[in-house]
Design goal:
By secondary structure, the chain is of the alpha+beta class. The chain has one domain. The chain contains four helices and three strands. It has a three-stranded antiparallel sheet with strand order 1-3-2. A hairpin with a 5-residue loop joins strand 2 and strand 3. The chain is flat, with a radius of gyration of 16 Å.
């Protein structure tokens, strides 16, 4: 990660691989192997930052056709939390998301 961030200040990726799964798809009642396979497939982009401890931020920058937020994840080098918070501030200024709510919000 340190080598990558010597070339790139910020890495952009999806937060998850699909829209939210149906209720029960990640149920704790599933057998361990099935649950772990499904979980790692769903959150594969976040694992790298969780393992390395490098900072990342998820921002709801888009909405699905169903009206659900779609997150964009930005990751940076160790110690660069300020960079990510500044980026989030700039993106919020450019395209505010604070007033957007999915239809299920009520």
């Amino acid at each position: 990660m340190a080598a990558v961030h010597q070339t790139y200040d910020v890495i952009l990726s999806p937060v998850v691989t699909t829209p939210p799964p149906k209720i029960g798809y990640l149920s704790g009642s599933l057998d361990y192997d099935t649950l772990i396979d499904r979980l790692f497939d769903y959150v594969q982009y976040t694992v790298l930052y969780n393992i390395t401890g490098a900072p990342a931020i998820s921002l709801p920058l888009s909405m699905s056709a169903d009206g659900l937020p779609i997150g964009a994840m930005f990751g940076a080098a160790l110690g660069q939390e300020e960079l990510l918070l500044g980026l989030a501030y700039e993106l919020e200024e450019a395209t505010p998301w604070s007033g957007r709510r999915p239809a299920v919000f009520g």
